[in-house]
């Protein structure tokens, strides 16, 4: 049985733009601008103090960037062209 991951499933170029920063901003806006306020779990992003807004945005950008760096490394290691 072949356990190699299909390379086509690992490639999402629009999600990975700017090493995932675009997706990190989308996550920030989706969660803090829509989902969390909709369920009354947190105030909307525009009502947060600037320091908290900056912290949340930076945190999302950082974790999505780390995920993208690891994804690229694993994709390179698992690609058939890698020696």
Automatic annotation (TrEMBL):
Domain of life: Bacteria
A Pfam family the protein falls into: DUF1440
Lineage, opening ranks: Bacteria, Pseudomonadati, Pseudomonadota, Gammaproteobacteria, Pseudomonadales
Name of the protein described by the UniProt record: Putative integral membrane protein
């Amino acid at each position: 049985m072949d356990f190699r991951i299909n390379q086509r499933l690992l490639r999402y170029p629009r999600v990975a733009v700017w090493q995932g920063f675009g997706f990190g901003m989308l996550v920030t806006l989706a969660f803090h601008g829509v989902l969390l306020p909709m369920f009354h779990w947190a105030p909307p992003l525009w009502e947060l103090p600037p320091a908290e807004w900056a912290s949340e945005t930076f945190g999302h950008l950082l974790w999505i960037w780390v995920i993208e760096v690891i994804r690229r490394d694993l994709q390179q290691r698992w690609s058939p062209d890698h020696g």
